[in-house]
Write a structure and sequence with these properties.
Blueprint lengths: L1 H11 L19 E5 L2 E4 L4 E4 L2 H4 L8 H13 L11 H13 L9 E7 L2 H18 L6 E5 L8 H6 L3 H4 L7 E5 L8 H10 L3 E6 L3 E2 L5 E2 L2 H13 L3 E5 L14 H4 L5 E4 L11 E6 H7 L16 H16 L2 H20 L5 E6 L2 E5 L10 H11 L2 E2 L6 E4 L7 H19 L1
Parallel strand pairs: 3-15, 5-6, 5-7, 7-10, 10-11
Antiparallel strand pairs: 1-2, 2-3, 4-12, 8-9, 11-12, 13-14, 14-16
The structure holds pyridoxal-5'-phosphate.
């Protein structure tokens, strides 16, 4: 069967983020047959630790029995219905539960509305559309959007336009006016602050991946920087949009990365861990202030995908929240993140490794002084680790781990040990 799968794959599948011409030199795709907890199991019964939670989505590991049960129970009742002029328990109650756990502040506007979509990219696309329409409704000449240099916000045309990495963006013209601004070398947002000060009246929104830019190579900035960005955006009267697609749901050690900085955004995008990695579903949370602008007269927000509010995804997403609570998932990160931190400190002490960095259940290190997304060094580490039963996927010269948040500590120790050995073998 394995060979038949590989043959069909080679003949007919167009894989994401793959060089088409590399079929001979590229590692053979892993033919995964099953997965349980932190483990992927291939067609020959070999087991691999999923060190990157299958592209950062499997926050609770694979096949969590409670999520499997929630899906089965919901699928026996209602699989899908349109969400225009219709509502149902899973999506309505999920919206309420999300609002209850969203970042909040005492005096300020809080996130009180939820728009459902299908994945991280669409959650950003929704936020972008809302931000641009919001400023038009206010008759403000805010046509610009600011994104941070190195940003990745997804692959739809709007979301990828925000992104800074040529490799992800493709050869397209911007459909709106975008200014991408770098954080300063010391990790402060001076340049963005200056721009907001001089030109803030023309800015509709500032998009930020709070604390960690994932796809850029796990680049991190401080809570202080995030707070300063938030304040500068508010002073300019623009919307602050937190893309927590990667950082949300405990990845950084708190439910939301914004919590580390006490920041409440005007809009918040969430996906990936949102369904525990089981189904493609996402949400964009919106403040009442923004929603109220759309709720006047005969205004409408002409947007919504066929599968918006899908009951299967919503039921699983509700169960994810219960599992987080019942199994004290966030609390359990403290002991695990210590292992991650210590391992990367050790690895960072070996030669030809640079800038070890960790936060919550994220650990990353560069294998070159100026790491490139097109670099090969991370791939060499991943190939060695795969032989020892650990599945990694690097960002070029940057190798990182983002294991399931609830990974057994013995499995985590093994994963980090294999990583350390593999990095040393490549870095010398
Ligand atoms: C992955 C990611 C996205 C895109 O999510 P998809 O589900 O792949 O569309 C958007 N923003 C950030 C920060 C991400 O890491």
């Amino acid at each position: 069967m394995r060979n038949a799968i590989l043959a069909a794959d080679r003949a007919h599948v167009w894989h994401p983020y793959a060089r088409m011409a590399e079929t001979n030199s590229a590692p053979e795709p892993l033919v995964v047959e099953r997965a349980e907890g932190s483990w992927l199991i291939d067609a020959d019964g070999r087991r691999y630790l999923d060190a990157i939670s299958s592209w950062w989505v499997a926050a609770l590991g694979h096949g969590h029995p409670r999520l499997v049960r929630a899906l089965a129970e919901q699928s026996a009742k209602l699989n899908h219905t349109l969400f225009a002029g219709v509502t149902h328990e899973p999506a309505a109650m999920l919206a309420q539960e999300l609002v209850e756990i969203a970042p909040r502040s005492k005096g300020g506007p809080n996130l009180s509305r939820v728009f459902f979509s299908d994945n991280g990219s669409t959650s950003v696309e929704v936020a972008l559309r809302i931000a641009l329409e919001f400023s038009r409704y206010r008759n403000e000449a805010r046509t610009k959007v600011i994104a941070v240099d190195g940003a990745f916000h997804g692959d739809t045309l709007g979301a990828s336009t925000l992104g800074a990495l040529e490799a992800f963006r493709g050869p397209f013209q911007q459909p709106f006016e975008l200014q991408r601004v770098a954080l300063d070398g010391d990790g402060s947002p001076e340049r963005i602050r200056a721009l907001l000060k001089s030109d803030g009246a023309s800015v509709a929104a500032v998009f930020v991946e709070p604390l960690v830019q994932g796809a850029a190579g796990m680049r991190m900035h401080s809570p202080q920087c995030l707070r300063e960005l938030r304040d500068a955006t508010a002073s300019a009267g623009a919307l602050f949009i937190a893309d927590e697609v990667f950082t949300g749901y405990g990845r950084t050690g708190r439910m939301w990365a914004c919590e580390h900085a006490g920041v409440v955004p005007d809009l918040l995008c969430t996906a990936k861990g949102f369904t525990g990695g089981m189904l493609p579903m996402a949400a964009t949370l919106v403040s009442s202030e923004v929603f109220d602008e759309f709720a006047q007269g005969d205004r409408r927000f002409s947007y919504g995908h066929s599968f918006t509010g899908n009951p299967l995804g919503a039921s699983v997403a509700r169960e994810v929240l219960r599992v987080f609570r019942d199994e004290r998932v966030i609390e359990g990160i403290a002991v695990r993140e210590k292992h991650v931190r210590e391992a990367f400190e050790r690895i960072g002490a070996s030669k030809n490794t640079f800038n070890p960095r960790t936060l919550g259940m994220i650990g990353a290190i560069d294998l070159s002084k100026s790491p490139s997304y097109e670099g090969e060094l991370g791939w060499r580490v991943a190939a060695l680790a795969r032989n020892e039963g650990v599945f990694l996927r690097p960002l070029g010269d940057t190798i990182y781990v983002t294991p399931p948040l609830n990974i057994a500590t013995a499995d985590l120790a093994r994963l980090l040990h294999v990583l350390e050995r593999s990095v040393r073998a490549v870095a010398g």
